[in-house]
Task: structure prediction
Amino acid sequence: MAKESMKAREVKRARLVEKYAKRRAELKKIVNSGINEENRAEAYEAAQALQALPKNSSYIRKHNRCSITGRPKGYMRQFGISRIQFREMASAGLIPGVKKASW
Result:
């Protein structure tokens, strides 16, 4: 079981990502258009503004965690839970449409 502080940190990151997503996209668009000579100064200012945003507002810093236990590894994206919880829930018949394979 993950510490509650780690779970809370991920929730906080998710909120920050959502809050700054639009602003980040606008700034990145300006930065990427700065290849031309006339846009270079504007792109530089946009890059500075992008760096001034909180680090945790970047979507890349989010980490998928099991919604039940908070486990960061063995995460199954399709179900939103870890492999261990998936196995327990599937064996108990709590996940519709999932059954144990046999061959």
